[in-house]
Amino acid sequence: MPGVADLAVRCAGVALRNPFLLASGIWGESGESLAGAWRAGAGGVITKSIGESARAGYPNPTVEAYDRWGMLNAMGLPNPGMDEYPREIAVARAAGATVIGSVFAGEADGFARLARRMAATGVSAIELNLSCPHAEGFGSEVGSDPTEVERIVRTVVGEVAVPVVAKITPNTADPAALAAAAERGGAAAVSAINTVRALAIDVRLRRPVLAHGLGGLSGPAIKPVGLACVWQIFRRVKIPVIGVGGIATARDALEYVMAGARAVEVGTAVAFDGIGVFGRLAAELSTLLDELGYRRLDDAVGAAHAGAGTPAEPI
Amino acid sequence: MRTAVRLTECVRETPSTVTLRFPYPASIDPGQFVMVWLPGDDELPMSVSYTDGPSKGVTIKAMGVTSRHVQSLVPGAWVGIRGPYGNRFDLSPRRILVVGGGSGAAVLAPAAEAAIRGGSTVTVALGATTAPELLFRDRFRSMGARVEVATDDGSEGTRGFVTAVADRLARAERFDALWTCGPEVMMQKVAAVGAEIHAPVFCAVERHMKCALGMCDACSLGPFHVCVDGPVFEAGRIVPLPEFARGHRDASGTMRAY
Asked: What whole-number percentage of chain A has pLDDT above 90?
């Protein structure tokens, strides 16, 4: 039974019917898939990270799936390119979806060019992929230096009217410093985390499983890592935080919200539970909020910080 | 997780297709596929052509670089297997018309075997470019199916498209279901044959595949993901899609015309 608590949130200036966003990279290659995620109940959908031109990504194996606790991938940023992709966004928007466009580039001007074209498709916001852990010259390679993050964000914000979200890497000593840099650059929000750099080896074949070697770990295994990042970022910046990493249940999502997230992204759970996970998460979250006495999800944002360090009675 | 296995047999089925046999104890249903990793090369979805017992098999046609590499594998070579993935053929129809084109017979043969074992009668319309390329013709016959053949060059059976044979068979006899796998243009015609005789048609389709877990979107076909919603679809769900038989997405997700 879905509860009555209000799940609608406003994050980075975007009104979301619920906090559960389809994470970038999942189901986002085709407009019909984005529309399908929206129909399944996602609060919004984030596109694949789109680059200047079509990119095939790495050869297979591109994923290694474990028993529900996690998944390793190195897709290599496959995408149809910014010339082709607007038609996919049009399909998703025609279905009524709230679409956030993700882009990746190697430097600030590239980000700005893509963001301008992405904004022209009518997306509600733009997410900058500053955090893919396994693509040479992109993602965390440009997103691990606060100075560079600030410069990229500032350049993009100067080019587009829509809100800009910076997706932060956890593969660095101080992710919150990256979030602070994004805030200085004018980001409307930050999302954290992207996958955690990881490796799998086949002992019989004596080689890494993924064709690319290194990949990124997602799924329940990284939830505590994501929570810690969101927690630290919330204490460091004033802009909203979007929590990502290992969310498979409403309780996972609420942990992120209490750590400081205003919205969350869901990715790997789609592989384990199917796209129906969105409808289920929203129904379960409102019930959970009812149980805990919250009338609105908003009221729970950052709630755990108040209790940090003080012994409290469990609810 | 993948399981590394050593190939036990590499059987040349036709000039362009080869079957790889390997020990893999997982239970696999006809229609399902596995991801086969050739270390140092690529990992591809392959129809399971031998589903029974501990020794499984996949049959693949030489098309891309990797599937050509498959053709040169020898027993003892290590490969990585994960799966099975996807859905299966419904084996309950009593009279089944199987329509296979080219390497499409790979997935149809184990399904026909299982159906016959379950008491169904199976008639096969089998097509290829030329007689030596008729995949599993003898296997279909020895399992007790009636087999009618069509070749493009007329070197065996009817000269022309296998769909013409299927159409003739469908008008002459009663069938409760049609199963088909092959080029999408062919399956489109088989769907029309099924509609004509009011019998459901089940198509096994192929798309570029990466994760095989319903996540990466590489194999999207309209609103479906072939890896988890398929590979077997009732024709009415996919044949009307604008992209069916016309285009497919490449590794970048760009729609390409067939």
From this structure: 90
The verdict on residue A247 lying in a domain is yes
Q: Does the domain spanning B95-257 belong to CATH 3.40.50.300?
A: no
Which residue from A33, A48, A207 is facing B39, i.e. has the nearest CB?
A: A207
Q: Is the pTM of the predicted complex or chain greater than 0.90?
A: yes
Provide, as residue numbers in chain A, all residues whose Cβ is less than 8 Å from the Cβ of B41.
Answer: 59
B3-85 to CATH, choices 3.30.750.24, 3.10.20.740, 3.30.420.40, 2.40.30.10: 2.40.30.10
Model pLDDT for residues B147-199, shown as the tens digit of each residue: 999 999 999 999 999 999 999 999 999 999 999 999 999 999 999 999 999 99
Chain B residue with Cα closest to A79: B252
Chain B closest-CA separation from residue A181 CA (Å): 31
Choosing from A123, A132, A225, A261, the catalytic residue is: A132
Q: Which residues of A touch B253 (CB under 8 A)?
A: 29-30, 48, 54, 78-80
Break chain B into its structural domains and give their ranges.
3-85, 95-257
Nearest chain A alpha carbon to B225: A33
- Residue A132 catalytic? yes
Give the C-alpha distances (Å, rounded to integers) separating A120 from A9, A76, A137, A248, B253.
25, 25, 26, 33, 21
ipTM of the complex: 0.93
Quick check: A202 and B253 CB within 8 A?
Answer: no
User: Which residue among B39, B215, B253 places its CB closest to the CB of A78?
Assistant: B253
Q: Does A173 touch chain B (CB under 8 A)?
A: no
State the Cα–Cα distance between residues A143 and A157, nearest whole angstrom: 16
The total number of structural domains in chain A stands at 1
Q: B119 — alpha (psi -120 to 50), left (phi > 0) or beta?
A: left
Closest CA–CA distance from residue B185 to any residue of chain A (Å): 23
Question: Of the candidates A28, A30, A75, which has its C-beta nearest B210's C-beta?
Answer: A75
| CATH number where A295 lies | 3.20.20.70
Kindly give the pairing relationship between strand A125-129 and strand A71-73.
Answer: unpaired
Confidence tier at B101 by pLDDT (50, 70, 90): very high
Inside any domain, residue A59: no
Query: For residue B85, which of B224, B212, B209 has the smallest C-alpha distance?
Result: B212
- Which of A200-214, B56-70, B91-105 bottoms out in mean pLDDT, i.e. has the lowest? B56-70
Question: Residue A74: inside a domain, yes or no?
Answer: no
Beta strand residue intervals within chain B, DSSP E: 3-6, 9-14, 17-23, 33-37, 43-50, 55-61, 78-85, 95-101, 121-128, 146-151, 158-159, 177-181, 201-204, 220-221, 224-225, 232-234, 247-249, 255-257
Report helix, strand or coil for B101.
Answer: strand
Q: Which amino acid is at B31?
A: G
Domain of A101, in residue numbers: 9-51+86-193+218-307
| Inter-chain residue contact B217 with A28, CB threshold 8 Å | yes
